[in-house]
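Try this one yourself first.
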């Protein structure tokens, strides 16, 4: 095998290649790999692998979000032109304070905006109509139900049956039909303990 000879003027190039892993030996993808003294570098691929050309005594920095930076100095006494390495990066915990983004600068501005909010007339009328329907059905369960409300109720029941197949059925606390049923059972005394 022929090995290239270098004069003192020639610069020795080394093929640095390897895999970047975490402490559980899982490959880390898209790790930034920078040659600090040359301001160039690469990133690891989706399998954590990388390969690029360096010089002896180059300082290599590996960095990734959520991991501590790791450094590597290329030795100047390598016998081969290939330098395979396995880089292990240690997890780093970064604490970030909670940030709540609101369109108001202060709580006082929020209160003023909330108090001065104007609902469209049709939305307000619809809300009052729905509340009146719910009240009438809770107080008078024998009254003829609204067809639209009845249709929505049956659609919701079908959805709940499909959603909870093989599980305990899902009951919503905000379902007016369930509340009407509850009050009806309460009036009929179905919740009374027969042992008393």
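Now uncover the answer:
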């Amino acid at each position: 095998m022929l090995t290239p000879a270098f004069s003192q003027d020639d610069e020795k190039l080394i093929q640095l290649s390897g895999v970047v892993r975490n402490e559980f030996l899982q490959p880390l993808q898209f790790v930034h790999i920078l040659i600090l003294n040359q301001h160039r570098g690469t990133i690891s691929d989706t399998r954590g692998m990388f390969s690029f050309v360096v010089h002896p005594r180059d300082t290599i920095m590996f960095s990734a979000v959520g991991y501590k930076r790791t450094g590597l100095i290329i030795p100047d006494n390598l016998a081969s032109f290939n330098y395979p390495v396995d880089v292990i990066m240690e997890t780093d915990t970064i604490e970030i304070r909670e940030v709540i983004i609101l369109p108001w600068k202060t709580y006082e501005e929020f209160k003023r905006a909330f108090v001065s909010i104007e609902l469209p007339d049709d939305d307000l009328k619809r809300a009052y109509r729905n509340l009146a329907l719910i009240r009438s059905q809770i107080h008078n369960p024998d009254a003829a139900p609204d067809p639209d409300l009845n249709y929505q109720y049956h659609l919701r029941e079908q959805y709940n049956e499909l959603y909870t197949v093989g599980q305990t059925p899902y009951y919503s606390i905000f379902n007016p039909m369930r509340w009407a049923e509850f009050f009806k059972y309460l009036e009929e005394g179905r919740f009374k303990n027969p042992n008393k």
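Discussion: The chain has a mean pLDDT of 79. The two ends are 100 Å apart (CA to CA).
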